[in-house]
Amino acid sequence: MAGLRVAITGASGRMGAELIDAAAGRDDVEFVLAASRTPEAVPGGDAPGAADVVVADADLGAALREREIDALVDFTVPEASVGYLEAAADAGVAVVVGTTGYDEDRQAALDAVADRVPFLKASNFSRGVAALRRAVQATVPALDGYDVEVTETHHSGKLDAPSGTAVTILDDIESARGGGDRGGDGADRVHGREGDQPRTGDEIGVHARRAGDIAGEHEILLAGNNEVVELTHRAGSRSIFAAGALDAAAWVVRRAPGRYDFDAVLNADGDDGSNGDRQ
Ligand SMILES: NC(=O)C1=CN([C@@H]2O[C@H](COP(=O)(O)OP(=O)(O)OC[C@H]3O[C@@H](n4cnc5c(N)ncnc54)[C@H](OP(=O)(O)O)[C@@H]3O)[C@@H](O)[C@H]2O)C=CC1
Ligand SMILES: O=C(O)C1=N[C@H](C(=O)O)C[C@H](O)C1
């Protein structure tokens, strides 16, 4: 099979740079197109053998078609991401989305993209967080009635809070509790605390810390019955997210249009390319 031809938006960003680096080191990637508002800021842009760099603007779709791109990988900001993904859909290009912090309107726009091309979105592309989520899904029902607090810690440049991963884990906790007393609509979440705020039984405390260049940490604390359980994941570097996203790109280009999740990629050993993993 021919190698993967991948486009990376937000190419000058923290994850953009990490993805370009990771793609350059993979045998299954044949060509990298770096798309950026600021091409001059893309690392290694002039180096021989470096990624082809284009301006991420209204002509992105044409650039994707001209370079015969198979998959677009987007780690940017929601306000830019929707336009990039729509350009990919117009060009018939599969998409992998790592961007977090979408509001409801933008989520709906992503759903429309997923109707048109293979679409894989994850709030976290690390294998460790996938395992952490499974541990949370098993532990919460086993410790019925225990208090739960979720804490995430990230670099000082992170925009959205709480992190996309924390939001995913909160959804997992509420599902594992059977929706909670108040219907699993997020109403049980208490973001930080100040002043007199006695804890209610069902509430889930949510804490976001920002400091230095921490790649990403998530901790779920469960306490009750004279015992404490802590489930923690710490990312040592952004390279784990880049590797997972490129694995996802290589996997999703062989699918029919529709929405897929990262677990399908992780469970893909011996996969024959059929579409049984569609969400
Ligand atoms: N799912 C996962 O595993 C992970 C997800 N993330 C998510 O990825 C996203 C990016 O994170 P990170 O790389 O740290 O962020 P950065 O701020 O470092 O990079 C984002 C890039 O997006 C582009 N951008 C920023 N603002 C705009 C705008 N208003 N319009 C158009 N383009 C814009 C810029 O690239 P340029 O100028 O080159 O176009 C910018 O460098 C975040 O949502 C983060 O939460 C991060 C790590 C892992
Ligand atoms: O912005 C980041 O850095 C990260 N964002 C993702 C999130 O919001 O959960 C994933 C990871 O934690 C790093």
From TrEMBL:
GO terms for cellular component: cytoplasm. Pathway: Amino-acid biosynthesis; L-lysine biosynthesis via DAP pathway; (S)-tetrahydrodipicolinate from L-aspartate: step 4/4. The keyword Oxidoreductase applies. Residues 174-205 are annotated as: Disordered. Its EC number is 1.17.1.8. (S)-2,3,4,5-tetrahydrodipicolinate binds at H155, G164, T165. NADP(+) binds at R37. The active site is at H154 (proton donor/acceptor), K158 (proton donor). This is 4-hydroxy-tetrahydrodipicolinate reductase. The lineage of its organism: Archaea, Methanobacteriati, Methanobacteriota, Stenosarchaea group, Halobacteria. The gene is dapB.
